[in-house]
TrEMBL record:
Residues 155-412 form the Polyketide synthase-like methyltransferase domain. It comes from Streptomyces anandii. Gene3D superfamilies: Vaccinia Virus protein VP39 (3.40.50.150). Belongs to the CFA/CMAS family. Keywords: Lipid metabolism, Methyltransferase, S-adenosyl-L-methionine, Transferase. Transmembrane segments: none annotated. It holds the Pfam family CMAS. The lineage of its organism: Bacteria, Bacillati, Actinomycetota, Actinomycetes, Kitasatosporales. GO terms for molecular function: methyltransferase activity. Residues 132-141 have a biased composition (Basic residues). CDD domains: AdoMet_MTases. Residues 116-141 are annotated as: Disordered. This is Class I SAM-dependent methyltransferase. One of its GO terms (biological process) is methylation. Its EC number is 2.1.1.-.
Amino acid sequence: MPDAALRLTRLLEQLMGTPIPVRLRAWDGSEAGPPGAPTLVVHNRRALRRLLFKPGELGLARAWVAGDLTVEGDLYRALGLLSGLIWERGEDARGLAAALRDPEVRAAVRGLVKLAGPPLPPAPPPEEVRRPGHLHTRRSDKRAISHHYDVGNDFYELVLGPSMVYSCAYWPAPEPAATLEQAQRDKLELVCRKLDLKPGRRLLDVGCGWGSMAIHAAREHGVSVVGVTLSQEQAAYARKRVADQGLTDKVEIRVQDYRDVTDGPYDAISSIGMAEHVGAARYLEYTRALYALLKPGGRLLNHQIGRRPQGDESSYHVDEFIDAYVFPDGELAPIGTTVTQLERAGFEVRDVESLREHYALTLRRWVANLEADWARAVRLTSPGRARVWKLYMAACALAFERNRIGVNQVLAVRSPESGDSGMPLRARTWGAPAVQR
């Protein structure tokens, strides 16, 4: 009689010291666990071997990306139920070593090894990229950006929609009143207002992506824009969009590292969803480079994901799954660290706005786009890459909703020696852009 699911459930509960909150279906068709809960489908014994050879988040991710492990039912609910056993458990290598001194834990591990079959470590899925250290040289940053962004513009169109904006939208209340495209337009307009863009001024868009911010700023506010990206595919796409909009006299798109931009000064700089790639070792260099490119009185809008402080408040954090499959070399810091580094470079920080809930709403829309055209997404990339994106975006949506991570717009000024920042006396007089209908 098939019983792998029951055996697996008992062994996992013995190992974790707590009931498994989801239902399990094993490779032999057996099921166990709470009725009505989402079902974690373990398609083969290889999934167990992945977990045994790499316990925790990365082993689970490898099983998911390879298709050895899937979820039936509400993925968000499944991830929410499992979060206490994965992301919020906080068990490091020392904690694992201590746990293995417990006879019951050792017995559970032996049982899982026996259930998993021959102990040969499966090769990681081909979508995984692993490099030693986080060097953040020009060459390593270019490779990291290429891994994430050069997977096909058609795939990004499918996920992001017509706006082609790969950062959180700015939603009205109630949220269903706006489409994703309207909410993204409002975010771009919010950035432009914070930067006080006006005809004749120069804007540098660092990490310009597919050109959406550059095009909006030039078309709606009459500024001249230089957009820089390390992605060849993004640059080609952005240049075509600029030409189609008739803005080639206003917008220049370059494949260029921000450290190599030398044609300042600029009146304003936007950095939207780029600073997460900079890294702890280079962050002060990043802030100083942008400070040097601004004229006195110029403004910087730094839009960046941050993590909640844990232990050492100034430390950066690297997520194993995201580092291996999504953003190689990406590092998240608390907002306090970001503000400190901007001030160390000479900036005067004038405003900080959290958009945490906005990113959760945006990610759920992106997941819906992916699910609605899943077969095409797989054709455009690979089954593993599509699974990477689904897990990444759904897990991040929950992380934003549960306040494990946040996203902030920091408005900073290179104040002149006179002290006249040019900022309004009352904060946020730029207001909230109206939803365009």
